[in-house]
Amino acid sequence: RGLGVCVTELRHLYNMSKAPLQSMQDWCAAVRSQASVLSDLDVTLRANEIFITLTRGVSDRYDAVIVQLAALDDNKHSIDAIIQALVDQESQ
Which of 12, 33, 58, 84 is the most exposed place for a label (fewest CB within 10 A)? Predict the structure, then answer.
């Protein structure tokens, strides 16, 4: 697959945003799915790119969690840790 496909799929990731009534689990699954598409295209994503996408469109109630996650060292920004923190916040 060519550069055009990679750019299109990256743009899709960068333009994703959580819908107001979408559950956090569904939202995270959608982002993971798009990240998987990119991985299959041999596109390497940094954790902060996933972090930004996962937090796009979330309500203000996630602000404290986002600040805590942003304060972590880059090597602690695993996708699983970010998703778990967001899902935990939704259940509170």
Answer: 33
